[in-house]
TrEMBL record, chains A, B:
Domain of life of the source: Bacteria
More about this protein: The reaction proceeds by a bi uni uni bi ping pong mechanism.
PANTHER family per UniProt: CYTIDYLATE KINASE/PANTOATE-BETA-ALANINE LIGASE, PANTOATE--BETA-ALANINE LIGASE
Assembly description: Homodimer.
Catalysed conversion reaction: (R)-pantoate + beta-alanine + ATP = (R)-pantothenate + AMP + diphosphate + H(+)
Designated name of the protein: Pantothenate synthetase
Classification lineage: Bacteria, Bacillati, Bacillota, Bacilli, Bacillales
The family this protein is said to belong to: Belongs to the pantothenate synthetase family.
Gene that produces this protein: panC
NCBIfam families per UniProt: cyt_tran_rel, panC
Gene Ontology molecular function, alphabetical: ATP binding; pantoate-beta-alanine ligase activity
Keywords: ATP-binding, Cytoplasm, Ligase, Nucleotide-binding, Pantothenate biosynthesis
EC supergroup of this enzyme: ligase
């Protein structure tokens, strides 16, 4: 596995590679868990060359968010990426990615003003700006994201379609701990009691899903029940529970086509998210490939 | 010369071509004059394959601007492009470029809030949005612009640098009529008396430049003299005369490095722009290559 830290070197190399080989790209902020590794492994199955980037992007963190305390372990990431079949690990510096103040900014309207976008203003603007840069540097044929951040997948879908990136978006299932908690780099920031409570995010979503399977069609009722479960079973503060059309992320009065039921809960040092996607019959949608 | 109207067909074709040949791209709104043709001819000298696009982009016209009356002559454009050495003429429809409401928007800060950007809010946002789409569809190695719209060149320079497009920006000299008037598709909308007055935009800029050559360093004095000449010699209304650093487009108190002296004048049915770029010694800068 090759490690490249310079954007210029990377771009020149990728231009050459793209002439003869297919490229799969897994953008990450590092501190790999099995969710990341599943994306890399799938990329290795699908493409000639697998590129993973590690870049904790300051642009997508708000002033009061956890940019500084976001967990980092480059040495372990290098080892894990190599094992997962990554060919090129791209680890640019902030200074190389943002050498001067950005004059051009990207913004996203409808899909960003709900869920995490509401409590994290500017977050998805930062995400799509860095992704546009990375897409232009790496020129992938396919890019891989985990559905744990379903809103991010929806926003990247809009980015690729609206701006005609010749890239196929692959969204893979959320990887979970044995008890069901969605894997997240932020889980290490949970206190012990919070860790055992955190599984209730998933259980609450499953409860909401079961209501739909049992015939409930009113989003307000489902959302309320999910909130009640989380409030009863955890010490965290509910940031949101929402049920929206997917991937359009519009509010729905009844369930048609795909919807996402999503939750964010703030614990003391970690804000966790989780979601479940299903259609009007309650059939679970685990990936978009 | 091949004519392609579908974005999908175009993108697939260009992905293939880019694997083995260098691509020069001239984005236009059509109604070709010698300015456009000079860009195409240079692109043909520099690259294996020359692509020109014709797309009157509704996104870059304000509600009270001349989108509808912007001149169009596809038949003549096809003939001229072929003569100029274009290999592929890309003529997408509005519906194919914007099949749904755009969710992602690009904006530009510092370089857009002066000159034409001030009187045409949203104009450069529209320009960089459509260019990002076209760059992703066409994947050029080099892209060609005329310096007649010096602000557009500055904004495209920011777009390419900020978002890491692997594209070299080539800015070529303004092509002029025999009397000095900058060639423009909008010149056909000038009344007869306006056409003979219009040369005074150029003459006024040359007068401003001569002041610098003669030792004047105060932008305010130079700008005032240029405005006086235009007001005296034309029936048009001065939209702006500004002298700014180039390509940063920051206001300057004295001339250091490159500056642009730029003018926009509104005639009855045509709004004309022109500019002149020079350094602190008055040396003219005619192209960026």
């Amino acid at each position: 596995m090759k490690i490249i830290r310079s954007t210029t070197v990377m771009q020149e190399k990728m231009i050459k590679i793209s002439k003869s080989e297919s490229i799969g790209f897994v953008p990450t902020m590092g501190y790999f868990h099995e969710g990341h590794l599943a994306l890399m492994k799938q990329a290795a199955e699908d493409n000639d060359v697998v590129v993973t980037s590690i870049f904790v992007n300051p642009l997508q963190f708000g002033p009061n968010e956890d940019y500084e305390q976001y967990p980092r372990d480059e040495e372990q990431d290098i080892r894990l990426a190599e094992q997962a079949g990554v060919d090129i690990l791209f680890i640019p510096s902030v200074k190389d990615m943002y050498p001067t103040k950005m004059n051009i900014t990207l913004s996203v309207e409808e899909r960003a003003n709900v869920l995490c976008g509401r409590s994290r203003p500017g977050h998805f603007e930062g995400v799509i700006t860095v992704l546009t840069k990375l897409f232009n540097i790496i020129r992938p044929n396919k890019t891989y994201f985990g559905l744990k951040d379903a809103q991010q997948v929806a926003v990247v879908d809009a980015l690729i379609n609206d701006l005609n990136f010749p890239i196929q978006l692959i969204a893979l299932p959320t990887i979970r701990e044995h008890d069901g908690l969605a894997k997240s780099s932020r889980n290490v920031n949970l206190a012990n009691d919070e860790r055992s409570q955190a599984v209730w995010l998933t259980k609450a979503l499953e409860h909401g899903h079961q209501l739909v399977v049992d015939g409930e069609q009113n989003p307000a009722i489902i959302v309320k029940e999910v909130i009640d479960v989380i409030n009863r079973e955890t010490s965290g503060t509910v940031d949101y529970v929402e049920m929206l059309s997917y991937p359009e992320l519009q509010s729905v009065s009844t369930i048609k086509n795909n919807v996402v039921l999503a939750v964010a809960v703030q614990f003391k040092r970690a804000r966790l998210i989780d979601n479940i996607i299903f259609n009007e019959n309650g059939k679970l949608i685990r990936q978009f490939y």
